[in-house]
Amino acid sequence: PRAPAGMGAVPEPCPQAPLAVLSKVELRVSCKHLLDRDTLNKSDPCVLLLMQSQGQWMEVDRSEVIKSNLNPVFAKIFTVDYYFEEVQKLRFEVYDSHGHAGVGTHDDDFLGGMECTVGQIVAQKRVTKPLFLKYGKFAGKSTITIISEEISGNNGYVELAFRAKKLDDKDLFSKSDPFLEIYRIDDDRSEQLVYRTEVVKNNLSPVWEPFKVSLNSLCSCEEKRKLRGVVWDYDSRGKHDFIGEFFTTFEEMQKAMGENKVQWDCMNPKYKIKKRNYKNSGVVVLLDLKIHRVYSFLDYIMGGCQIHFTVAIDFTASNGDPRNSCSLHYINPYQPNEYLKALVAVGEICQDYDSDKKFSALGFGARIPPKYEVSHDFAINFNPDNDECEGIQGVVESYQSCLPKIQLYGPTNVAPIITKVARVAADEERTKEASQYFILLILTDGVVTDMADTREAIVRASYLPMSIIIVGVGNADFTDMQILDGDDGVLRSPKGEPVLRDIVQFVPFREFKNASPTALAKCVLAEVPKQVVEYYSYKAFPP
């Protein structure tokens, strides 16, 4: 992306990190207690999904219209491309639709809206929020629920083809108009609509169109999870007639691979009690099933992997006296310095994936109170027992309050901090859960003094659940730092042992000075998802 003319040349972000779409996320939407805008019957809701692009809200997609229903569960699955390294803002708007005119965007048809980010939905998996009308007014008790599921690299999916035979006839003057719904039954016994087929008109032995669903959405990737199929006779007023149901599992469905077919009796429990020789209300047949599998970054995030974020700040004397406006650590009330800019840009992305929103913040290369001895891994909140700060804001405040208390010194040793975080990551790994992945952001103004120890520490760390991001602040010569970023060849320890996986990303901040904070975050975080997947693949941990 080039800068518009007149802004000064902005470098192409990260030539080595093409912005791959890592994954696609499926969003399912349902609403409760919608406002009733229609006088004669209930509202006919439809949901619009908008995404923010360069400050403008653009409509991306919209759901089907559900007739006269104030508690709709939409069958439409919204698919959004997911980028870990960006804040992606979403807005959902619910409207009462009026048949032919399509969805009006008039105020009187607006049933409410809600905003959130893709990262929030992904990290929480299920988000329920109130709907708001214009000017921040609540839309009565209306709520919207978004459930997210990820399609692994667009591959972890299954293709199904269903038909039915000899269904009960529910219509007086014509045959039933059947459609099929598949539900997944969750651990709390609630049912998630996985798919709703099209309606086949006037046909008691319908063949429905084949469809694809992700394995995650069909059965949460658990073959024995119970599934419920329901066949309905369509009614245009929204009062569909129940024909029958059947229960199955993905394990059982898989018998339909190849030449085989699997079939179920479609049962109406009421008829079963009432009618003595009731056999069924028809049969449902699974004609064919095909599967594709692969794991991705989001599998791990959604499997409960937490990202733990640590920032390490260089307090060596080469930064210049913080009281002097030329210093890289100068606190300007009107303009954050480069350290703060880099910290906030990267930290804001990471905080969506860290459930406790507590970040470890460390400093190195300064003399610290009370004895003013040089330390290469001190907590900037000066609490040796707990170096965590509350959110990015907490880190910023600790940074600003620690500057006057310390004396900038040297040398620039980063191995102690890498080793410190690696120790925590190793303890985490021993729990076998490996549910935490550590990102260490090192902000430094110069060339590392302890290069041999740093290389050794990085090789050790490459076996652990961690990634290291180094942002070079200021105008020093960072040639040596490029060696640590294994993009030009494999990084080796002083003894010649190679890293198990490339875990370091180095970026000079000056290349992004005129670019937006999001460009910096994109560049430094673009490699992380790949590094997470590589780590878990080496360990053979499924999500």
TrEMBL record:
Signal peptide (UniProt feature, chain positions): none
Domain C2: 3-131, 138-265
Keywords: Calcium, Cell membrane, Cytoplasm, Membrane, Metal-binding, Nucleus, Repeat
Cell location: Cell membrane; Cytoplasm; Nucleus
GO cellular component terms listed in the entry, alphabetical order: cytoplasm; nucleus; plasma membrane
UniProt xrefs under Gene3D superfamilies: C2 domain
Domain (VWFA): residue spans on this chain: 308-507
A GO MF label: metal ion binding
SUPFAM superfamilies with a match to the protein in the record: C2 domain (Calcium/lipid-binding domain, CaLB), vWA-like
Highest taxon of the lineage: Eukaryota
Homology family: Belongs to the copine family.
Function of the molecule: Calcium-dependent phospholipid-binding protein that may play a role in calcium-mediated intracellular processes.
Protein name: Copine-7
Native organism: Oxyruncus cristatus (sharpbill)
Lineage of producing organism: Eukaryota, Metazoa, Chordata, Craniata, Vertebrata
